[in-house]
Design a protein that fits this description.
The complex is a heterodimer.
Chain A lengths: L13 H23 L2 H24 L8 H12 L7 H18 L9 H12 L17 H13 L12 H6 L14 H13 L6 H16 L4 H6 L3 H8 L10 H21 L6 H18 L12
Helix pairs in contact in A: 1-2, 1-3, 1-8, 2-3, 2-4, 3-4, 3-5, 4-5, 5-13, 8-11, 9-12, 12-13
Chain B lengths: L13 E2 L5 E5 L8 E3 L6 E2 L4 E5 L7 E2 L4 E10 L5 E9 L20 H11 L14 H4 L5 E5 L9 H8 L1 H15 L3 E6 L7 H5 L6 E5 L9 H7 L12 E5 H13 L5 E7 L7 E6 L4 H7 L9 E4 L6 E2 L13 E5 L1 H4 L12 H5 L6 H9 L3 H6 L10 H5 L6 H14 L1
Parallel strand pairs in B: 1-14, 9-10, 9-12, 10-11, 13-17
Antiparallel strand pairs in B: 2-8, 3-5, 4-7, 5-6, 7-8, 13-14, 15-16, 15-17
Helix pairs in contact in B: 4-7, 11-14
Classes of the chains: A mainly alpha, B alpha/beta.
Chain lengths: ~325, ~425
C-alpha cells in the first residue's frame, strides 16, 4: 500500500463531536443539581460509568479494532437526564447496561444500532418501574417560587405591558427548572441550560436543524388546535431533550433530508398524541422510539433514485 | 473545507535558483518507457537529450542544466515507485538561459511540423485519460470537444490561477495552437473562479469559438466526468477518443514548445502549507531536489510536517527531500499537524457526512458496512463501481474510516474475480 489517500482530513472528529456534546450538556447537570440536590450528580456519574464499562466490555469481547469514541459516555449522560431526580442508584446502572449491552450489542450487529439505545434503556426502566417516573401534572401555579413571583411581576409591568400581554405565574419557574418542586426528571430541572446547549451545538452544526424544527411544529400545531397549554407542554418532561438530542442522535435518525423531515414530523405528531391521550408520565420518548422503528424503511424510501454516472470508460 | 488559496494566490510567480545538482528521473509519469542515451562522466549541454522514449507516445528527457553526469542512481518517486535517475552537476556554459529567445512562427507552419516541435520538447500533458492504444496526434481527427481546465478545486492549489492571470496572452495563444492541431468541434474553457472581474473582457477577444465557464471551487468539481457533465458535454462510451481535457500548465507547455522551441526543462510549482515560511509559486528546473526548492523558497518552519507532492486529496507523500521536481509536479505542500488532522480510526457513528458529500450519490457508510461484513456483492448492488475515487468521503469522515481506500481495494478485488 505505502500511502493512503486522501492526505488531509476535515477538522471534526468523532471524539471532538462527542466531547462537545458532553461539554454542552454538563451545565444541565449542574443546574439540575442546584435545583434538586447533589444526588443527581451521583445518578449521572453512575449512568456514565456504567455505560462506559459496558461499552468497554463489548469492545473487548468483540476485539474491536477501532479506538473508543466516548459515545457511550454521551449515551450514559443522556439516559441519566431522562431519569427522575429521585431515581434509586440501580436505575442508571441497569438502564445503561440495557442500552449498551442489549441494544447496542445485540441490535447493533457490530455497527451502530438503529434503535436509539438511550430511549430503549429508558423505556426498559419505564416499563419495569412505571411508578418511579413522575406523572405529567397540569400547571396549577400553587408552588410558585419567590423568583417566579417577582420576575413575572417585573416582566408584566416593564416588558409585556408594551404589547398588552400578561404572563401568568409559574412559567418562569418552568423555564429555569424550578417548576417541579416534588418529583421531576433530571432534565426538567435544567431547562435553561439545555436551551443554551442547543444554541451552542446548532451553531456548530452538530445536529440537523430539520429535526427540531419539524418536531416542534408538528407537536405544537395540533396542540394549539386541541387547546393544550403550549408553554407548559414544551417546558415539561423530556420534550426538549427528545426534540434536540434523542431524535437527532445520528445512530438512529434517517440519512436524507426528506427522511429527516418525515421522521421528525412523525415523532412530533406521536408526541402530541401520547402527551394528550397516552401514559400518565411523559411519553415523548415512546414517540421517538416508534419513529426509530421506521428509520430503515424511511432510508430505503428516501434514497436517491439514480446515481450520477461520471465514469468515462 | 478551508481552501488555503490565499497563502499563495496573490503573489506573482518568482524564479528560483538553478540546482547545483539536478536529479533527473528517467520516467516522470506513470506508464512511460524510456532509455538513457548518455553515460556517466559525459558532459551535457543545457537542453541536451538525456533519454529517449521507447514507445510512440513516450517522451524524451532533456537536461535541465548544463553539466556533467556524475552517476546514475535508483531513486524513489513521490508515492513510492523506484526508477533510475541521472545526477547532473552544474558546470559549463548556458546555451539558452539568459540569451534572447526568438519566436518561431506557427500560423504558417504545417501541422506535422508543429507535432514534431511538440514531440521534441518532451512535454508532459496532464490530460484526461486517453485511449492507451492511441497517441495524442491520432486524436486530431476525432475530437468533439477540447476542454481547457483552469479550475483546481483542491485546497492550496493555485497554479492554474497564477498561470491564468499572469500569462493570459500566452494561454490564449496556446489554445489557438491546440485548436489548429486538433480541429475540435467545440472548445470549452473552465476558468479559475477567483480571477479579476475584467479578466474575461481582455481574454475573450483573443480567442474564437471558445466557450468560457465559471464553476465553483468545490472538490471534486474538476474530476473529468463531473466537469464534463457540469459544462454540458455528454458522456458517452469511448469518450477517450472524442474529448480531451488539458490543464492550463499543459497548454502553456505546448505553446512554449511550439513558439519558443523550448523543451520542458522547467515547471512552475506552488509551494504552500503552513510549514513553509514563504508560500508562493516558483519557477524551477526539473530535477531540483525538494530540499533545495524548499530552502530557496524561504525554508521550512520548525516542527513535524507532512510533505506532499500534489494536492491534499490526490497528492503523494514523499519519504525524503532529495526527491526531485518532475515535469508533472504542480505543487509541494508542507503541512503541519493542524492541517493534516490525522486521527485514529473510530467506529462509524452514522453521521451521514459522507452521504451528504458524495458527488455520485453513493452511501459510503452503507458500502463500508457491507465491505466490513465481507459482502462485496451487496457493495456492488449499492453502486461500488460508480465510485470515482475522489476521496471526499474519507476527508469528511469524523471517525477517519478509510472509506475510499476500502472501496479501491474492493474494486480491485472484484476485478480479480
Amino acid at each position: 500500500m505505502g500511502f493512503r489517500l486522501p492526505q488531509t482530513f476535515d477538522r471534526v472528529t468523532t471524539l471532538r463531536f462527542h466531547l462537545s456534546f458532553l461539554l454542552a450538556l454538563s451545565p444541565v447537570v449542574i443546574l439540575s443539581a442546584v435545583n434538586h440536590g447533589w444526588p443527581i450528580l451521583v445518578t449521572v456519574a453512575l449512568s456514565m460509568a456504567s455505560a462506559w464499562a459496558c461499552d468497554e466490555l463489548l469492545r473487548r469481547v468483540r476485539r474491536s479494532p477501532e479506538a473508543p469514541d466516548w459515545g457511550a459516555l454521551l449515551w450514559g449522560l443522556l439516559l441519566a437526564l431522562m431519569l427522575p431526580a429521585q431515581a434509586p442508584f440501580y436505575f442508571p446502572v441497569i438502564g445503561s447496561a440495557f442500552a449498551i449491552l442489549v441494544v447496542k450489542g445485540v441490535f447493533g450487529g457490530g455497527g451502530t444500532p438503529w434503535i436509539n439505545p438511550v430511549l430503549a434503556g429508558w423505556a426498559f426502566l419505564q416499563a419495569g418501574w412505571p411508578s418511579a417516573f413522575p406523572a405529567m401534572e397540569p400547571l396549577t401555579g400553587d408552588h410558585r417560587t419567590a423568583f417566579d413571583l417577582q420576575a413575572t411581576d417585573w416582566l408584566n409591568a416593564n416588558v409585556f405591558s408594551w404589547v398588552s400581554v400578561q404572563l401568568p405565574g409559574g412559567y418562569l419557574d418552568l423555564f429555569v427548572g424550578l417548576g417541579h418542586p416534588g418529583t421531576a426528571l433530571i432534565v426538567e430541572s435544567g431547562t435553561l441550560a439545555l436551551l443554551a446547549a442547543t444554541v451552542y451545538l446548532l451553531a456548530k452544526g452538530y445536529f440537523p436543524w430539520e429535526v427540531p424544527t419539524f418536531f416542534f411544529l408538528t407537536f405544537c400545531i395540533p396542540l394549539v388546535f386541541a387547546g393544550g397549554n403550549l408553554l407548559h407542554q414544551v417546558f415539561s418532561g423530556a420534550l426538549l431533550l427528545n426534540l434536540f438530542f434523542l431524535a437527532s442522535d445520528p445512530s438512529s435518525r434517517p440519512l436524507s433530508r426528506g427522511g429527516l423531515i418525515l421522521f421528525a414530523s412523525g415523532a412530533g405528531l406521536f408526541s402530541f398524541l401520547v402527551r394528550t391521550w397516552g401514559v400518565s408520565s411523559d411519553g415523548v420518548g415512546y414517540a421517538v422510539l416508534l419513529m426509530n422503528l421506521f428509520v430503515p424503511w424511511i432510508d430505503r424510501r428516501f434514497r436517491r433514485k439514480s446515481l450520477n454516472d461520471f465514469r468515462l470508460a | 473545507m478551508d481552501s488555503f488559496r490565499s497563502l499563495t494566490g496573490a503573489r506573482p510567480i518568482q524564479d528560483l535558483f538553478l540546482p547545483s545538482l539536478a536529479v533527473v528521473p528517467l520516467v516522470q509519469y506513470p506508464g512511460a518507457r524510456a532509455e538513457w542515451v548518455v553515460e556517466t562522466g559525459q558532459t551535457v549541454a543545457e537542453d541536451q537529450i538525456l533519454a529517449q522514449g521507447l514507445g510512440p507516445g513516450d517522451l524524451p528527457v532533456h537536461s535541465p542544466i548544463p553539466g556533467r553526469i556524475v552517476e546514475f542512481r535508483e531513486i524513489a518517486l513521490p508515492g513510492g515507485p523506484v526508477c533510475s535517475a541521472a545526477l547532473v552537476r552544474l558546470e559549463g556554459e548556458f546555451r539558452r538561459t539568459g540569451r534572447p529567445s526568438f519566436k518561431k512562427d506557427w500560423a504558417m507552419a504545417g501541422e506535422p511540423e508543429l507535432w514534431e516541435r511538440i514531440r521534441n520538447a518532451g512535454i508532459y500533458l496532464s490530460s484526461s485519460p486517453l485511449d492507451p492504444r492511441r497517441t495524442l496526434e491520432q486524436l486530431a481527427s476525432t475530437l468533439d470537444a477540447l476542454v481547457i481546465n483552469a479550475l483546481q478545486p483542491e485546497p492550496y492549489l493555485t497554479l492554474s490561477h497564477h498561470l491564468q492571470t499572469e500569462r493570459a496572452g500566452d494561454l490564449a495563444e496556446g489554445i489557438r495552437i491546440l485548436q489548429k492541431l486538433f480541429r475540435p468541434r467545440k472548445t470549452e474553457f473552465v476558468s479559475d473562479p477567483e480571477v479579476p472581474e475584467d479578466w474575461a473582457r481582455t481574454f475573450s477577444p483573443l480567442l474564437t469559438g471558445v466557450t468560457l465557464h465559471a464553476l465553483e471551487f468545490k472538490y471534486p468539481q474538476a474530476q473529468e466526468g463531473l466537469l464534463l457533465q457540469t459544462i454540458g458535454v455528454k458522456i458517452t462510451p469511448g469518450m477517450g477518443n472524442r474529448v480531451l481535457i488539458l490543464d492550463a500548465a499543459s497548454v502553456l507547455a505546448v505553446r512554449d514548445a511550439v513558439i519558443e522551441a523550448k523543451p520542458q526543462v522547467e515547471v512552475t510549482v506552488v509551494v504552500s502549507g503552513h510549514g513553509v515560511t514563504n508560500p508562493g509559486a516558483y519557477r524551477v528546473r526539473i530535477g531540483t531536489p525538494l530540499f533545495q526548492l524548499l530552502r530557496d523558497a524561504g525554508g521550512v518552519t520548525p516542527g513535524d510536517h507532512k510533505i506532499l507532492v500534489g494536492g491534499p486529496f490526490q497528492g503523494k507523500s514523499v519519504d525524503h527531500l532529495s526527491t526531485p521536481v518532475l515535469k508533472s509536479t504542480q505543487a509541494v505542500l508542507v503541512l503541519d499537524k493542524d492541517e493534516v488532522n490525522q486521527a485514529v480510526q473510530r467506529p462509524c457513528i452514522r453521521c451521514g457526512l459522507c452521504v451528504e458529500s458524495c458527488p455520485v450519490g453513493l452511501e459510503p457508510l452503507t458500502l463500508h458496512k457491507a465491505l466490513v461484513q465481507g459482502n462485496i456483492g451487496l457493495a456492488q448492488d449499492e453502486g461500488l463501481a460508480f465510485c470515482i475515487e475522489c476521496g471526499i468521503c474519507s476527508f469528511v469522515c469524523p471517525s477517519r474510516v478509510p472509506l475510499m481506500a476500502e472501496f479501491q481495494d474492493a474494486k480491485e478485488a472484484s476485478r480479480g474475480l
